[in-house]
Amino acid sequence: MNRKRLSFLRVGMLAGCALVMAPFHAQGGQQSPGMGIPDNGAVVGDTSALAREAQNWLVDLLKIDTTNPPGNEQAAAKYIAEILTKEGVIAELLEVAPGRSAVVARLRSSAVADPSRALLLVAHMDVVGVDKSKWTVDPFGGVIKDGYLYGRGSLDDKSMLVANLAAFIAIKRGNVHINRDVIFLATTDEEQFGDASLRTLIAKYWDKFAAGYALNEGGRVMMKNGKVQYIGVQVAEKVSVNIAVTATGKAGHASRPTKDNAVVHLAAAVEKIGNYQAPVHLTSIVRRYFEGLAGVEDDETAKWLRVIDTPDRGEHAQRVLADMNPGWNSMMRDTIAPTMLQAGVRVNVIPSEAKAMLNVRLLPGDTIDLLMNDLNKLVNDPQVKLQIVPDGGLAAPNSSMENEFYSLITRVSAKEYGGAPVLPYMSTGATDSAQLRLHNVQAYGLMPFAITEEDESHVHGDDERLPLASFAKGVDLITRIAAEFSVTR
Ligand SMILES: [Zn+2]
C-alpha cells in the first residue's frame, strides 16, 4: 500500500474512537503513523491525484462497449472488480442475466451490518446506443479533444460510476474508522429497465446492497456564463407510463374511401392529445426549485418565476415559463408525448386498424386513471380506444429534504462550488432511484460535474462529452460527501 495515497483521506480523533473495533476498520490494517489529526479537522485531503486515476478508469470504461441492448456489462464489471481487488477489497459479481453482471463491494463498519445506516454508491454501467455516422469521433475510443473527453457514457453514467469508485477507494485507502457500511454498486440494464435491471437485482440480491441512503445519478451542476449557477439534488422523479391508442374501422379498397378510415380517426385523436395540456400542479419540490431558480436566473425569467404561484399572475407566468423551457413545463404537469405510429400494409389498402403509442410522464402523486379519464373525454370517438400498457413505472415516495444526509449533501456541494445555491430537483426522466425509494432508501441524485445546458443536450445524443475541467471537482465532491457521511471523527 502506497502510504502517500493515504493523504486522500484524513481523520481526526481516531485515538478516541471507541465505536468501531479494529477488525472492521475500513482498511482492516494498522493505523498509519502519518495519519495525524489535520489542523483544519477536514476529513478529506487533496483528491487531485485520485481524480487523475479516476480519469484513466473512465477512459478505459468508455472503451468497453456496453450499449444496451444487449448491454454486455460483464467486461465492464470485470474491469471494475479488478480495480477493487487491487485495493484489497472483495468485489463480487452478481449475475443478473447471461453476460450481464453487477458489481458489489462493501466497506464494513462493524461485525453486524445495519442496512438502515448503510450508504450505497450506485451507478449504471450500460449506455444507450449510438449513431456512429453522426459522431465526430469514435464513441468508444475514449477520445480527448479540445478539453473534452468524448464517448458514449462520458456523462451518462460512467463518469458518476468512476466518481463513486474513487470515493469508495479513497475511504478504503484512508485506513479510517467508518460509522456506517459503505457499499459500491455498479448496475446493469438501467437504460432499458428490462429483465437485468435494478428491479431484478433487488429481487435476487437485496441483502448484498441493502442500504438506508444512496447516491445515484439524476441531479446536476449547471454552468451558465462560465460559472456554476446552481446544484440540483434529485429527490423525486416523474413516473413513466405508456398508453396504446388503437383506432379501428372497415378495411377496404383505397379507391373508395369511407369516413370510418382508421388512419383518419387515429390522426384526429393524436392531434387532440398532442395539443392537450394537463392542468398545472406545483409539487412542494418544484415550488422550492423554482423559488431557488428565481435567485439565479436573468431578471425577466426571475420575474415570472416569482409569481408562478400567485392568484392573479400565476396562470400567465406558468404559460410563459412552460413555453420558455420544456423541462419546466414537464415539472409543472403530467405530460403526454405521442411517440410511435403504425398503420397499413399496402399503399392502396385502407387498413382496419391504426395504432399510436403515447409516452406519459406523471408527476409523482398523480394517477394515470385520472389522466385516462380526461383523455377519453377529449378524444370522444367510439372508434378509438385508449389502453394503459402494463408494467409502467411505479410511483415512489420522495426522498426527504429534512434528514442529515440531505443537509450534508447541500452543505458540501455549496462549499465545493463556491456557495452556489443547492436546490431540490425532480427529474422529468426516470432513474434507478425510484426502485431504491420503493425499498425505503433515501436516494439522492447528483451529477457532480459542472456542465452547461449545451453539454447536457448531448446525453443520449451524438458526441456525448465531459468537460475535463469539471472532472476533478466532481470526483472531489462525491468523495467528500461519502467520507463526511461515513468517516468517524
Ligand atoms: Zn443514466
Give the key terms.
alpha/beta, six-stranded mixed sheet, four-stranded mixed sheet, binds zinc ion
In words, what does this structure look like?
The chain is of the alpha/beta class and about 500 residues long. The chain has helices at about 50-65, 75-85, 160-175, 200-210, 260-275, 285-295, 300-305, 315-325, 325-330, 370-380, 405-415, 435, 455, 470-485; strands spanning about 90-95, 100-105, 120-125, 145, 150, 180-185, 215, 220-225, 225-235, 240-250, 250-255, 335-345, 350, 355-360, 385-390, 420-425, 440-445, 450, 465. The strands form 5 sheets. It has a 6-stranded mixed beta sheet with strand order 1-2-6-3-7-17, with helices on both faces. Helix 1 crosses helix 3 (about 160-175). It is globular, with a radius of gyration of 25 Å. Bound molecules: zinc ion.
